[in-house]
Write a structure and sequence with these properties.
Number of helices: 15
Oligomer: single chain
Distance between the termini: 59 Å
Strand content: 15-25%
Largest sheet: 9 strands, mixed
Shape: globular
Radius of gyration: 22 Å
């Protein structure tokens, strides 16, 4: 029990207007939360409180909801993946990295701790953590203070390469079933975690790496247990063509045919649909399927932008009626920067400044993500909602002048202006410092783990190359 906290006279509050279904600004307003729930959002609060926070110079906003991230893996690739791509595989470097860089499960908790710290510092309070099971996962995310939606990955096959122009699949359906059973056990353990902040998400990892039976069983499991379900769908050109080769339809159409769609389903990325200029396909049905089935798209701009690719476009999906959420698929795990990039890339790909705006991406990063996770009590400031909230410092140099504070946050300040973070009414960031984890120690241990990974790269790469051969340094060493 944490008692009640009053944030008094905040310069700006991003409040939820339930009747209109949108966020609105309040000025000179108060926010009150008691224990893990918000009890008041408005002006002129005259009740008692155990703790009072002076809201002058602050914006209070809901915690961000990140529905697609791989925190136990992506921090290993800092300095490696930012410019790593394979032109003969439609620019993506995903498949090469998956084989060449062998990650040690014993090091993943440190990578996750680094990512969890970055997420909290950039205002994320709810996270769908899509990882493969590793020792200490639930302890690590429980300790972080995040609201964790634990999504243990499993599949019927894994990718491998014998050249730089062909992707191959190693199928092992028996092992895939064992991994699915283990994932079910981990989801059940998350539901029972002592923190009370963890829950399970069904995650067959990629649509091309799972059999039809596994995908059907996954959606059945989700429906039986009331859990959300997610997978990578339409995330790559090679995947698109592989699904067409197997089934004669696009990945989105194949998912629809087997019932792997719905308001409890989110597709990671869904960039390469039949309308994409990269595909130049004839059917033009994918977008309407997403709308008609109420399937969410988890938009993560950074990894694809690094390959010269983008969703075409955020505004088109939104205006069609697709529910959009946001994620941080790569390091840095900074959802505010992803919002900025999503807005800019939407305008570039549409050649239209009206393709996306701050309100659009903020909605996706809050209530859009909450909807995908089947929650109506996160991603918003309203009485009865969870006390997951952010205090933004309007006096930060990058926020001034704060004529439109959300716009200043997204376009200019980002995480630099995030001062305090609360999850479930518990403060987890104070004055820009994480209170729940040792960020510095995790970074030091991650550096050691990355060095071990790089030394071992020739033992995993099909061509026995070193890390420097796969991803050369930015500058020549003299």
């Amino acid at each position: 029990m944490t008692g009640s906290t009053l944030i008094k006279g905040a310069d700006w509050v991003v409040a939820w207007d339930a009747a209109a279904g949108e966020h609105v600004y309040l000025t000179d307003a108060d926010v009150v939360f008691a224990d893990d729930r918000i009890s008041f959002v408005g002006r002129g609060y005259d009740g008692a409180a155990d703790v009072t926070v002076d809201g002058s110079g602050l914006m209070v906003m809901p915690g961000l909801v990140n529905i697609h991230a791989h925190p136990s893996m992506e921090p290993f690739y800092r300095g490696i993946r930012e410019e790593h791509g394979v032109p003969t595989m439609y620019m993506t470097g995903l498949y090469e990295r998956a084989q060449a860089f062998g990650l040690n499960p014993d090091d993943m908790a440190d990578a996750a701790t680094v990512a969890y710290s970055e997420l909290l510092l950039s205002g994320v309070t709810s996270l769908c953590d899509q990882s493969f099971a590793y020792p200490g996962w639930l302890d690590a995310i429980g300790k972080s203070g995040l609201r964790g939606f634990v999504a243990p990955g499993y599949s019927s096959a894994h990718w491998y390469m014998e050249s730089l122009h062909e992707l191959k699949y190693q199928w092992d359906e028996d092992q895939g079933r064992k991994n699915m059973d283990a994932a079910i056990g981990l989801m059940n353990a998350a539901d029972q975690h002592e923190s009370g902040r963890l829950s399970g998400v069904v995650f067959p990892a990629q649509i091309d790496n799972c059999t039809e039976e596994m995908l059907r069983d996954s959606i059945a499991l989700a429906r039986e247990t009331g859990r959300p379900v997610t997978s990578h769908v339409a995330q790559g050109v090679l995947e698109f063509h592989e699904i067409v080769r197997r089934h004669g339809v696009t990945p989105v159409q194949w998912a629809n045919q087997i019932g792997f769609v719905g308001e409890d389903v989110s597709f990671g990325h869904a960039i390469f649909i039949d309308d994409s200029s990269w595909m130049n396909w004839a059917s033009h049905r994918d977008l309407s399927i997403l709308v008609d089935t109420a399937t969410t798209v988890a938009h993560c701009p950074s990894p694809f932008a690094r390959y010269g690719q983008t969703l075409e476009n955020f505004g088109k999906y939104k205006s069609a009626g697709v529910n959009l959420g946001m994620g941080t698929d790569v390091a840095p795990h900074n959802l505010i920067e992803e919002m900025r990039l999503a807005t800019i890339l939407a305008r570039v790909s549409a050649r239209d400044i009206r393709a996306a705006n701050t309100a659009d991406v903020f909605h996706a990063a809050t209530v859009g993500g909450a909807k995908a996770l089947l929650r109506d009590d996160i991603g918003r400031l309203a009485p009865g909602a969870k006390a997951d909230l952010i205090l933004v410092d309007l006096r930060n140099e990058f926020m001034q002048p704060a004529r439109d504070p959300l716009r200043c946050l997204v376009y200019t300040a980002a995480d630099r202006a995030v001062r305090d973070v609360y999850v479930d009414g518990r403060q987890v960031v104070r004055d820009g410092k994480v209170l729940t984890m040792d960020h510095r120690l995790a970074l030091d241990r991650l550096a050691e783990a990355q060095a071990r990974m790089m030394r071992d790269t020739p033992n995993h790469d099909f061509a026995k190359r070193t890390t420097d051969e796969i991803s050369p340094l930015s500058l020549r060493q003299a």
